[in-house]
Amino acid sequence: MSTSKSSFKNFILPMIIIGALFFIFGFVTWLNGILIPYLQIACELTDFQAMFVTFAFYIAYTVMALPSAWLLKKTGFKNGMMVGLFVMAVGTTVFIPAAITRTFELFLTGLFIMGTGLALLQTASNPYVTIIGPKESAARRISILGICNKFAGAMAPLILAYYILNDADVFVQSLKTMDAASRIVELDALAARVINPYIVMTFVLVLMGIGVRMAPLPEIETSEEEEQTANGEEKKKSIMAFPHLILGVIALFFYVGAEVIAGDMIIKYGQFLNIEFDTAKAFTSYVMVTMVVGYLLGVTLIPKVIDQRTALKVSAILGMVFALGAIFTTGFTSVIFVALFGLANALVWPAIWPLALSGLGSFINTGSALLIMAISGGALLPLAWGYLSDMFGSQQAYWIMIPCYMFILFYALKGYKIKSWKLTK
């Protein structure tokens, strides 16, 4: 009985609580797919300006990841998660004056603050999940949590679209016939639609922060023993002395860029193909559903049938296949191939984390922060996609996915094994 209680307290309960946090991650993150067309209409933005929605949100990870690691050393994982939730609540609150004034810069400020909170939250929660159980099943645990994340991601755009863009096609057409004064009134009313949903999110985030603080989560102590290599070399003095981590950061950069392009750009891609918004608004959810399928496969197959590295190899190959399918097919078939990126992407994050964090010992907080900084791929690569879209069309812009998956494949084949920057004969 005592063993059962200990298992619940030390493993099952933390997984339940972290699962709830991953649900929050997914819900907040994948709202961007709807916020892009919403803010483009409400704030009268160009396509390039609209891409700054993802830029403001994801660049926060680069700016704030290392400060997050420093804060975690002071607060510990548990209190760090609480602070992260409270910071996110500040960001959602900023949406209220942004909507009242219909000021795009304020919306971006709110998104940056939300990204800052998520940077802290993810810097704490991802290594926490990696550490609380056996390393060989870490990808399986992260896959379970990924289901929570992407289930929320599937729901979020549909829920927000219902409240703020349920009449988008009619609304856009009606704007064309309005005089300037009427247009301003209608756009102000459209901007105000976002206030109530974000008040609810603020309330939920504050409650979650209080809940995490009161929850009996065990604090994880990192060990310095793993800093020594298998052949007995001296402890490494710098985080840069771990090539498998640095290459993992680069692989995650490309992965997150590919994931954001798949999930957040697919609605705009549907519009590029002249698919009505009422249909296209569900496309982000398609991506999330295929990701959930991928996570379920991960939970079922890892580590009993395939290991984390094999899952990473298969994911990278599928990504390249789906990219070619999106480029060389037409219409709704092409959209389906873009949605299938979710299947290819699902196991990349959970596979890279344990491979990259292996053997870091007391460097694990900093290593986690560097991996979180890789989320900046979601800020920069969509801008590159947007540039290519303007130059060559949205469909041809998906060529950018090929080098992303090629590097991920390299990491799965060789990168994770590189333990020294010294060339070996």
UniProtKB/TrEMBL annotation:
<feature type="transmembrane region" description="Helical">
    <location>
        <begin position="144"/>
        <end position="165"/>
    </location>
</feature>
<feature type="transmembrane region" description="Helical">
    <location>
        <begin position="397"/>
        <end position="416"/>
    </location>
</feature>
<dbReference type="InterPro" id="IPR011701">
    <property type="entry name" value="MFS"/>
</dbReference>
<comment type="function">
    <text>Intake of glucose and galactose.</text>
</comment>
<feature type="transmembrane region" description="Helical">
    <location>
        <begin position="310"/>
        <end position="329"/>
    </location>
</feature>
<feature type="transmembrane region" description="Helical">
    <location>
        <begin position="48"/>
        <end position="72"/>
    </location>
</feature>
<dbReference type="InterPro" id="IPR036259">
    <property type="entry name" value="MFS_trans_sf"/>
</dbReference>
<feature type="transmembrane region" description="Helical">
    <location>
        <begin position="195"/>
        <end position="215"/>
    </location>
</feature>
<feature type="transmembrane region" description="Helical">
    <location>
        <begin position="245"/>
        <end position="263"/>
    </location>
</feature>
<dbReference type="GO" id="GO:0055056">
    <property type="term" value="F:D-glucose transmembrane transporter activity"/>
</dbReference>
<feature type="transmembrane region" description="Helical">
    <location>
        <begin position="12"/>
        <end position="36"/>
    </location>
</feature>
<feature type="transmembrane region" description="Helical">
    <location>
        <begin position="79"/>
        <end position="100"/>
    </location>
</feature>
<comment type="similarity">
    <text>Belongs to the major facilitator superfamily. FHS transporter (TC 2.A.1.7) family.</text>
</comment>
<keyword id="KW-0812">Transmembrane</keyword>
<dbReference type="InterPro" id="IPR005964">
    <property type="entry name" value="Glc/Gal_transptr_bac"/>
</dbReference>
<feature type="domain" description="Major facilitator superfamily (MFS) profile">
    <location>
        <begin position="12"/>
        <end position="420"/>
    </location>
</feature>
<dbReference type="GO" id="GO:1904659">
    <property type="term" value="P:D-glucose transmembrane transport"/>
</dbReference>
<keyword id="KW-1133">Transmembrane helix</keyword>
<dbReference type="InterPro" id="IPR050375">
    <property type="entry name" value="MFS_TsgA-like"/>
</dbReference>
<dbReference type="Pfam" id="PF07690">
    <property type="entry name" value="MFS_1"/>
</dbReference>
<feature type="transmembrane region" description="Helical">
    <location>
        <begin position="363"/>
        <end position="385"/>
    </location>
</feature>
<dbReference type="GO" id="GO:0005886">
    <property type="term" value="C:plasma membrane"/>
</dbReference>
<keyword id="KW-1003">Cell membrane</keyword>
<dbReference type="InterPro" id="IPR020846">
    <property type="entry name" value="MFS_dom"/>
</dbReference>
<protein>
    <submittedName>
        <fullName>Glucose/galactose MFS transporter</fullName>
    </submittedName>
</protein>
<feature type="transmembrane region" description="Helical">
    <location>
        <begin position="283"/>
        <end position="303"/>
    </location>
</feature>
<feature type="transmembrane region" description="Helical">
    <location>
        <begin position="335"/>
        <end position="356"/>
    </location>
</feature>
<feature type="transmembrane region" description="Helical">
    <location>
        <begin position="106"/>
        <end position="124"/>
    </location>
</feature>
<keyword id="KW-0472">Membrane</keyword>
<dbReference type="GO" id="GO:0005354">
    <property type="term" value="F:galactose transmembrane transporter activity"/>
</dbReference>
